[in-house]
Design a protein that fits this description.
The chain is α/β, with parallel strands linked by helices. It has helices at about 45-55, 75-80, 95-105, 115-120, 135-150, 165-185, 195-200, 220-225, 230-240; strands at about 5-15, 20-30, 35-40, 60-65, 70, 80-85, 155-160, 185-190, 205-210, 210-220. The chain has 9 helices and 10 strands. Strand 9 (about 205-210) and strand 10 (about 210-220) form a beta hairpin. Strands 6-7-8-3-9-10 form a 6-stranded mixed sheet, sandwiched between helices. Strands 2-1-4-5 form a 4-stranded antiparallel sheet. The chain has 2 domains: about 1-80 and about 155-245, Rossmann fold (3-Layer(aba) Sandwich); about 90-150, no CATH class. About 35% of the residues lie in helices and about 25% in strands. The structure holds adenosine-5'-triphosphate.
């Protein structure tokens, strides 16, 4: 999985916190127009990798490119083309969804004539002057996603975006992600520890265990080789079973 058209290209990334090597020699390849499911148990290192890719943390060693730009040396240029939702989103609680998006665009020095388009896209167009403080978790998450994509980034990075959402909200999110790819030409990196969620949305799966991305494989290949699907593949890979690449 290498060559042209890679939106994320990470080689040999490691990160220490003190003496502890939390990310070890990680490699990631995200082809343009794909949804990359970043799968791993809690504490495996998904958030840390995503923070490195968005310049929130520096790697201890290795190289990472996003949209062909080195994240260490071209961070600002890269971030203009990336949308992300990594930490719990912070909003102006007393303001409406629309006002929150307008403030965000003003901060980014962009015009705000497409705010309604994005509110409609995430199903918040009816919220009017309702303060964000009254929103459900699902509504907050959808607003955070609208904010992450309103500048039409080429890459969207989402850390556990469906955590805490109910089944209907999860289904809506899934449809939204596919729309971002099909209608807006985005590529998406999405992390989760929920196998079934990524199985339904991802084109490629990268498995991370104990700080190492141990395998990347297309879902089509996983389905062909593992009749029982991603769960079977995941346990095969993480238990150090037979060679399958
Ligand atoms: N700032 C930090 N200082 C020290 N250790 C950290 C720091 N940030 C993360 N870690 C450790 O690095 C490891 C990986 O954490 P990370 O949050 O990247 O995992 P994760 O796969 O995103 O897990 P989760 O799904 O629970 O968020 C964990 O053991 C965590 O305790």
């Amino acid at each position: 999985m290498s060559g042209k058209g890679l939106i994320v290209e990470m080689e040999g990334i490691s990160r220490f916190f003190g003496e502890r090597e939390v990310i070890r020699n990680c490699t990631m390849h995200l082809p343009e127009g794909s949804i990359y499911g970043f799968l791993g148990p809690n504490g495996a290192g998904k958030t840390t990798v995503m923070k490195i890719l968005t310049g929130l943390l520096k790697q201890s060693s290795g190289h990472a490119k996003v949209l062909g730009l080195d994240v260490s040396t071209h961070r600002d240029e890269m971030l203009g083309q990336v949308g992300s939702l990594i930490e719990v989103p912070i909003f102006f609680e007393h303001l409406s969804a629309k006002e929150n998006l307008q403030i965000h665009l003003a901060y980014m020095d962009k015009d705000d004539n497409n705010v309604m388009e994005f509110l409609e896209m995430v199903g918040l167009e009816q919220t009017g002057s309702q303060a964000v403080s009254t929103f459900s978790l699902g509504m907050r998450q959808r607003l955070a996603i609208a904010r992450a994509v309103i500048h039409k980034p080429k890459l969207l990075i989402l850390d556990e975006p469906i955590n805490g959402l109910d089944p209907l909200a999860i289904r809506e999110m899934r449809a939204l992600f596919k729309r971002f790819v099909n209608e807006y030409g985005m590529s998406i990196l999405i992390s989760s520890h929920i196998i079934s969620e990524l199985e339904q949305v991802a084109d490629i799966i990268g498995i991370i265990v104990n700080g190492s991305i141990i395998r990347e494989m297309h879902m089509t290949e996983i389905r062909a080789k593992f009749p029982n699907g991603l769960e079977e593949y995941f346990f095969e890979v993480t238990s150090g079973g037979t060679e399958i690449a």
